[in-house]
Amino acid sequence: MPELPEVETIARGLAARVPGRRVEGVTVRRPDVIARPASRRAFRDGMTGRRIREVTRRGKNVLFVLDAGMRLLVNLGMTGRLLLDDAPAARGLGHVAVRFRLDDGRTLLYDDVRRFGRMELFDAQGWAERDARFGLEPLGEEMTPEALHAVTSASRVPIRNLLLDQDRIVGVGNIYASEALHRSRVHPARPASSLTRAETHRLRDEIRAVLQEAIDAGGTTFSDYRNASGEAGAFQFRLRVYGREGEPCAHCGTAIERQVISNRSAFFCPACQPHRRGRRA
DNA sequence: AACGCGCCCTGTCCGC
DNA sequence: TGCGGACAGGGCGCGT
Questions:
Q1: Which residues of A115-148 are buried (b: 16+ CB within 10 A; e: fewer)?
Q2: Measured in angstroms, what separates residue A152's CA from nucleotide B7's C1'?
Q3: pTM
């Protein structure tokens, strides 16, 4: 479900409401969601008594900065939601996996229908090691045209797949990969290393633009995604290709096509995004 | 080492 | 109405 814009929206919502609070108790109803440390007891003990200093985002993860240099990293998978129990939408949750009781009487809930989401608790050292392994942050200063070109030129996987690989570039998922490629006029199945320097630079600009526009719209909601207050986003109305198979391309009118690449759908305009080879870099 | 694929799990929708 | 299959915004672990 959630890609960078959705996770950013959730993190901002929580950042306005939980920093300064202390975790007084943890209830783990679905142990498979806890990925680190190995035991649920160690997770509970590690979280209990921690004060939440900050809530931010790293890639597609919500990052809770705790005291004592600890970090709680939450990957929402496809259907994960984080919200406080005082939000009206909290009453409708049917798959609460973890509860964090806070010192002001509220409870932070993690709900996840499919349980693809995972939580990891790090100490300072563990976090430094994990943090170093993330790919490029697309909205960060590190995302220079040269940096993206270095990534694309090093692999022959379809460019759509490369954009989904969190070891190379973080935050982009299946929706925004299709959208950014369409806006850049690059076919999703093209080998990454076949992109010209000009195409890579365009792609860099369009990734940043579409992610920022989606953040401004509060994210994309098809069914599951909600922000920290339980509200839907609005970017689904501005998608140009994702989920629009058979509809006319907004740019040229040609019918949008869907192609399955590595078991996941890619949407593109066959006219705007021809599958011709670019010059080798 | 890099890459493709199956799989994790639940819900919804569509065709028959 | 029921049923089987396809599909869903993600990512891990496996074999090659």
A1: eebbbbbbeeebbeebeeebbbbbbeeebeeeeb
A2: 28
A3: 0.96
